[in-house]
Write a structure and sequence with these properties.
Layout lengths: L4 E3 L2 H7 L5 E3 L6 H4 L8 H12 L6 H24 L1 E3 H17 L8 H18 L8 H35 L12 H8 L7 H34 L3 H9 L1 H14 L5 E6 L3 E3 L3 E3 L4 E5 H4 L3 H4 L33 H5 L16 H11 L2 E3 L6 E2 L8 E3 L1 E4 L7
Parallel strand pairs: 1-7
Antiparallel strand pairs: 2-4, 3-11, 4-7, 5-6, 8-11, 9-10
Helix pairs in contact: 4-5, 5-6, 5-9, 6-7, 6-9, 7-8, 9-11, 9-15
The structure holds protoporphyrin IX containing FE.
């Protein structure tokens, strides 16, 4: 493949990712799991699909999600860790975010057991490897075969029963036996209810839901662990900082956004030019050429974030039009659909902390710190060795009751 054109200036990324003749390019090789999913669609097909699936965010969705779904899922996922007085944050982070993402995608877990979550995680891990096959050092056909086997396990065990339960509820709604508010609020329900059956063949439906599972779980888990670490290290330098984090919820969210800026789950976005074009930052781009948008690099631009752009500093001011988390959630037509779910709303002007939408990462971390979560003093965290990404691989945490927020 010819070398891609590189764009790493923030404003040029924002403009470039809005170009209508640039199509998604990172997942072509991962078609076995990514073909015809929202992230890979282009133009009118993408627009229609995105509008359809955006329908999951119907009235009051976020309030309901943050106040009902999130606390219940967190409680179920964390019970064992709390009674043990300690946890391993990578494992816990993945368990919690896998369950939250499954709730959002519409995958039921009838057992509600750790073993069931672990099985789902194992399958989603294989899907993700398949999606990013382009970066894999493994033989590609072997990996594709593994993805096919994972799909063959996922479909009857997780997807089919979830589809059946929703079809039954939709039939009961049709018969006037239940109200619309009794339906699950998830992507699968939206697709079954309003999607075009010609578009959502069984294979496409499987890949679409599998895509949601991987889109939500890995990025949220890794971002949560990074934010735990950044906030912990920063606050340990001065007890006043712990106090501020505890009492100022908006500031806590600001700290999470600062960490999201430093550790974007997708460091780059790739697009392919559908016709010859000019792009600021790349110049003339020929049809078929690839453009690499360097999101992580732009997020550390000193001209925007200051001379200490590489440091975690939740007190830094970030001026509009830049977002406090930079390009971490992407921009343009493929902007992350889970952005507000995970990151919450960026506060502007006068905001009521009681009713503000904080996002699940902030809520999850506040819950951990409120229970006195701290790095295990005798077992320091370690980086992951099974990926080229700078993620945490092992992060032992203790719950110190003396530090709990009463
Ligand atoms: C910290 C967590 C997350 C990060 C950093 C993140 C990041 C991103 C980025 C950068 C993109 C755009 C990729 C591109 O332009 O090529 C994206 C797209 C997407 N994300 Fe996320 N994501 C996160 C969590 C989630 C969650 C929780 C969900 C849903 C449950 C989700 C669903 C999606 C979907 C559906 C798209 C595709 C949107 C489209 O193509 O129109 N993400 N995400």
């Amino acid at each position: 493949m010819a070398q891609p054109h590189i764009i790493s200036n923030s404003a040029q990324i924002a403009a470039g990712l809005k170009h209508p003749e640039l199509k998604q390019a990172l997942y072509d090789e991962g078609a076995v799991i990514m073909a015809d999913t929202l992230l890979t669609l282009h133009g009118e097909r993408h627009r229609k699909r995105r509008i359809l699936e955006f329908g999951v965010f119907r009235k009051d969705f976020f309030r309901w999600y943050e106040q009902t779904v999130f606390p219940a899922t967190l409680k179920n996922s964390m019970a064992g860790d709390l009674s043990a007085g300690r946890t391993e944050l990578v494992d816990l982070g993945y368990r919690v975010t896998m369950n939250l993402t499954a709730d959002f995608a519409g995958i039921d877990r009838p057992d509600q057991s750790e073993a069931e979550t672990a099985d789902l995680l194992r399958l989603v891990e294989i899907f993700s490897q398949g999606a990013t096959i382009i970066h894999s050092t493994r033989p590609k056909d072997e990996l594709r075969e593994e993805v096919r086997s994972a799909i063959a396990e996922f479909e009857p065990r997780f997807l089919a029963p979830s589809v059946a339960r929703r079809r039954d509820l939709l039939a009961r709604l049709e018969a006037g036996e239940i109200a619309e508010s009794d339906l699950p609020r998830d992507v699968l329900t939206v697709i079954l209810r309003k999607g075009d059956p010609g578009e959502f063949t069984p294979d496409v439906l499987t890949r679409e839901i599998a895509f949601y599972l991987q889109a939500g779980a890995h990025s949220t888990a890794n971002s949560t662990i990074h934010a735990f670490h950044d906030i912990h290290v920063w606050a340990e330098q001065d007890p006043v900082r712990w106090d501020r984090l505890r009492h100022d919820r908006l500031f806590f969210q600001r700290a999470v956004h600062e960490s999201l800026r430093l550790h974007p789950a997708s460091p780059v976005a790739w697009r392919q030019a559908m016709c010859p074009m000019h792009l600021d930052g790349a110049g003339a781009v020929e049809a078929g050429a690839t453009v690499e948008f360097r999101l992580a690099e732009a997020n550390r631009d000193p001209e925007i974030f200051g001379a200490d752009a590489d440091a975690f500093n939740p007190e830094r001011a970030v001026a509009l039009p830049n977002l406090p988390f930079g390009h971490t959630f992407g921009t343009g037509v493929h902007t992350c659909l889970g952005r507000d779910l995970d990151g919450g709303v960026v506060p502007r002007g006068d905001v009521d902390p009681e009713t503000h939408q904080y996002g699940t990462i902030t809520l999850f971390l506040r819950d951990l710190f409120a229970r006195g979560a701290r790095q295990d003093p005798v077992a320091p965290p370690q980086m992951a060795t099974n990926t080229a990404r700078p993620n945490w691989g092992h992060y032992p945490v203790i719950f110190d009751e003396r530090l709990a927020w009463a």
